[in-house]
Amino acid sequence: MRISQLFYQTLKEVPRDAQIPSHQLMFRAGMIQQLASGIYNYLPLARKSLNKLEAIIREELEKKGCQEVLLPMVQPSELWEESGRWGYYGPELLRLKDRKGNDFCLGPTHEEVVTDMVRRNLKSYKQLPWNLFQVQSKFRDEVRPRFGLMRGREFIMKDAYSFDVDEEASKVTYKKMYDAYTAIFNRCGLEFRAVDAATGNIGGDMSHEFQVLAKSGEDLILSCDKCDYAANVEKALTKRSEGKMDASALSANEKVHTPGSRTIEEVAEFLKLPANNFLKSIIYVIDEEPVLVLIQGDLEINESKLQTLMGANSVALADDKTVRDITGASTGFAGPVGLKKKLRIIADYSVSHGLNMVCGANEDDHHLLNVNYGRDYIADQISDISFAAAGDSCSLCEGTLEEHRGIEVGQVFFLGTKYSEAMKCTYLDKDGKEQLAVMGCYGIGVGRTMAAAIEQHHDDDGIIWPVAIAPYEVVVLPLQMNKEEVVQTGEDLYKKLKDAGIDVALDDREERAGFKFKDADLIGYPLQIVIGARSLENGELEVKIRKTGEKKNLPLGEIVSFVQEFIQNEKS
């Protein structure tokens, strides 16, 4: 590509809302333009990088027997109603009506559509396994789009869906896809970790996220310093168990007046007690059932763990009316003792270790002192529903959890029969009996992966592309465009590199040398080949390696072979 003809413009200024390096650099390098909040145009440099990333994805998935399809972005509500997600997915699902008044949505994911497609074709166990994937735009109406391609509303995603005869076969497919993702991100030159993860709105029983390690990452990852355990903080486990109370240390209950104090912080200040001496009591509505959830006052309820524990589709805080109907009091004064209505109680392990705790008295402006687990109340279920933290013990060994920041670029889910049961996706087994297909689903944020690569590979001057996904592998920089020998050498070398199968750009613009160098560093070409009149007199050209800043003077006749060897080594 001749840069004089390339559709792009490098810029010095960045949008005010561009807070992270990838957003700033992609805008400055002329890779993206914002069309609307969270919606972007991908310009040629970005599209080139995406094409290479998508090619890697396709190659690795096809090695695992995946087949590519393309499904509609606009989906009918009937399929979502069948799966049960139409009412549960939330405001991120952009709903719309056609001219006849029929309900549709813009697809944030395609479990329903692909399950419907497969059930129309699936008859016999002999047809399975199937693993179908697509690369397509998705839409999620994020409440606060931010960080450029990291959290947009419209985004490019690779999503795949597997169908197997049973759980054992499905988990074999899950492992194949896990291995494919490992190969994909390794080939992209990324430092990443595969971590145990929550399943969220997708559902299922098992999931792993692939997290690119970066200081700007939104996700908090905890990993063991002694073993391979790693998990998203939403799923991370630590060694916790139910405690035992010393009956001789238990004090009698006492109701106290706490006017205007409803939060843990306010009551702790009023009573001059530490937050860990309190019993945080919160009423949730879990799949339309009110549930009282208890945890030690200085800890936070991990709603992902709670959702997984309950096998629920949705977890939401109860509204004020529901709280008053159950407790007889306003929000902020709930407690497990003396509830107006009986309901299920779920408790974190931490409450069983607390002695003589304080909780709401189910009466406005009142709290109850000396509340103890086992004597004053019993939970229907006690489990780990709090967030693990750095410094906690590993759940698998004697190690300690450490904290990292990560960018989620991919996730694999074992779905089981969540969708096939709801949507009647069945086959006949070898005995002629009808069985449910067992499913998995697997996503990669393609645009996000490109942005994550920049987050991990950049410096003050610009992007430092991994060779495998760089828009161009090398740029040829003739400096004196008024000198025929410089221009001709650039043209000749450009042609030789193209003929050798190298993805090369030629900066043929009538610009100053400093301008060309700054653009080359900003855009992040892995190799820069500098052609100047003085170096030509010696029969040598300067080659700069962007990643290290190293410069080499090489004979003109060795340039092509050096570039080929460099690219091969970087991709291997």
Could you describe the 3D structure shown?
The chain is of the alpha+beta class. Strands 3, 7, 8, 9, 10, 11, 12, 21 and 24 form a nine-stranded mixed beta sheet that branches. A five-stranded mixed beta sheet has the order 16-14-15-17-20. Strands 28-27-29-30-31 form a five-stranded mixed beta sheet, with helices on both faces. A hairpin with a 5-residue loop joins β18 and β19 (366-371).
Mean pLDDT value: 94
Largest sheet: 9 strands, mixed
Strand content: 25-35%
Q: Determine the number of helices (DSSP H or I, runs of at least 4 residues).
A: 14
Which short descriptors sum up this protein?
single chain, 572 residues, alpha+beta, BirA Bifunctional Protein, domain 2, YbaK protein, Rossmann fold, 3 domains, 9-stranded mixed beta sheet, 5-stranded mixed beta sheet, 27% helix
In short:
By secondary structure, the protein is α+β, with helices and mostly antiparallel strands.
